[in-house]
Structures are given as structure tokens and as C-alpha cells.
Amino acid sequence: MRITLLQAKLHRGAITACRLDYEGSLTCDPDLYEAVGMRPYQQIHVLNCNNGERFVTYLIEGRRGSREMQVNGPAARLAQVGDRIIVLTYADFEVAEVSAHHPVVRVLNERNQFT
Question: What is the pTM of this model?
Fold first, then answer.
């Protein structure tokens, strides 16, 4: 049997842009997602702390050092610049691996800097 657990979380990042006319995704500074082990094109869950919206999309590499978190495509209607979001990834584990697993979590401030 396998079980799905939280793999990584970027907690309370701030949306820096919303771009409706772009391919659906979340563009993110690699400095942010690499710190928790996320990868470009990986499926992510985005939770908007301001309005309660939740959506599933994938990660796109942004400009390193930019601190950007840009919501693209149809999901851009679910967020506004300045909204605080939680970005999550999950992974499947064998039951025997569960007790040794610890998700990687990093908390961000309103400027998308690690606290």
C-alpha cells in the first residue's frame, strides 16, 4: 500500500502578478521553489489565503532572484496581486517510509523572503 503525504510547502508567499493571457501555471523564482525541493513542471496545489480559492496547476521557472510568484492563465482570475498563497506538493510513499518522512516547509514574508 502507498500513502500520499505533503512533500513540500512554500507558506504565505505573495502574488506579484496575475497574467490571464499566459499559459496556465504559476511562475516562481527558482530560489524559492528549489529551497523546498520543488521542480519546474511539477504539479502543485495553490491555496489562496485571502479568498479561499484552491487550484491545481504546475510550476514554471521564473527569473532567479526576482522573488516573483505570478499566477497565469485562467487561475489568474482566482488571485490578485498581494494575495498571500500557500504552494504545496505531495508525494507517494510506501507505508514503511511514512515514519521517516518530514516535509520541507519554508515560510515567506510579504516580499517573498524567507523568514
Answer: 0.96
